[in-house]
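Rotation project, supervised by the postdoc (A.L.). Task for the rotation student: set up a whole-complex structure prediction and record inputs and outputs verbatim in this book. Inputs entered:
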Amino acid sequence: MSIAVRNLVKKYGEHAAINDITFDVRTGEILGFLGPNGAGKTTTMKIITCYMPPTAGSVEVDGLDIFERSLEVRRKIGYLPEMNPLYLDMNVREYLDYSARLHGMRAPEVRQRTKEMVDVCGLESVRRKDIGELSKGYRQRVGLAQAMIHDPEVLILDEPTSGLDPNQIVEIRNLIKELGRAKTVVLSTHILSEVQATCDRVLIINEGLIVADGTPDQLARDFHGADTLTVEFRTPALPLDDVAPKLKALAGITRITLLGHADGACRFEVHADRGTDVRETLFRTAVAEGWVVLEMHRRVTTLEEVFHKLTTAEQSTP
Amino acid sequence: MNSFSVANCGAIFRRELRSSFNSPVAYVVIVVFLAIIGWFFTSNLFLGNIASLRVVFELVPLVFLFFAPAVTMRLLAEEKKSGTFELLATKPVRDIEIVLGKFFAAWALLAAALAPTLLYLVTLGVLGSPDPGPVVTGYLGLLLMGGVYIAIGVLASSLTENQIIAFIIGFLIMLALFLADKVLIYAPEGFASTLEFLAIDYHFANIARGVIDSRNIIYFGSVLGFSLLLATASLERRKW
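Outputs recorded:
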């Protein structure tokens, strides 16, 4: 069950919420949709789920156009909208029953699926409670159960963990991982650790454009800028002013900044050329010069930094 | 290829009715309705010594004017406001099925409110022998008129997220149809008959008199159908 999104554009008046995005979601993949608020994540999801049409472009779910075969597409999709809207006056069992019936199930199947979802989503203890009385974590489980009631091949989850406490986030994340094993899942979030923990692939979207696409590790590698190291030497024999030029002369180092010095020790930030590991050079130089290496630390680019870079650089250019 | 699904309609209908009767709304509305009608019926009976359902048939259309928008205002407006509409619309359900399910649920509520007034009929049967013809057509007329009001209320509720606004829009349209034949003296010459044909009370009065004319049935059917179609189109506005 794949999703093919082609040249999708959605305009609200003059403002383009999404501006020509194209991507595929492969069968069985968990795709993380990452982006700042207002980047176009929710809009894209609303289009894929047939809630509203795009201004231009097309979406096919399992080869079915969302326009021409809307009902069939909707049958294949389980959707958890952004704020997880639920009928607060219904109890959990009634609500799941209702959702199942809207998917055209008959009584025996409705009963069986409802029971299964109650088990899988851990809703046994609250089965007869009104949804309005449930905690946020339980409501999110009900939202997931509702989305999964017809055993859909595609799950679209819009910020499934927003507003939950850290324990609940872990629970819901595990639930998604477990349920999503045999399904194609698209989930949006702005929590980066979530993507790293759950997704096979990440799409970073900003101001309606896709700015990055790849596995979490791949992105961290690709957008990994130059290495930045923090080093601290004790240089008893050398005046402080002479250390910096010596470092600067080394191959692969572009820039150094003195961070501070005290008691014959000095601290530098060393910027290396992209793709060069200068740790060994630094160490050998220190040994040759008779310096003592007190500290050497290399900062690795995290997805967080990739995200920050991609989503703020765009905005700074008007 | 995909045909209209009665099962979907039924699921929405049942949820809607259950939700009405799970909350105090349905009971409050029904009790108020019965209290008003009951007071007039019994005061006529005991004080005026008139054993007739005429007062019921005269008063109910007026009470429906408030009753119908009150029971329909939340139907779609609430779902749109709370966001549950998005969830409903992304299920394999057609917009027309949503509209019809909700329409029938509200109509059933209205019929449920009207049903206890049949007890008056029993009272009248004990006291005298009412002519069954006009009674049957009178109730039929009330149901049809109620159906038209409910359909207009559903339309009003589809137009906005705000229940109060839905109530006011619905009420104003119903009031216009209700008053159309009461302002005939102010209407210009050639316009009067058109205005009279638009008046819901005119058609109801015809039916309540015991005459079932196709013109009246067509009027009720077309206003009802047109309102529901507009409501469906209004839901589909999100796709424009």
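Student's summary: Chain A touches chain B at residues 46, 49-53, 71-72, 74-75, 77, 79, 81-83, 85-87, 89-90, 94, 98-99, 101-104, 146 (CB under 8 Å).
Supervisor addendum: The longest strand of chain A covers residues 15-25.
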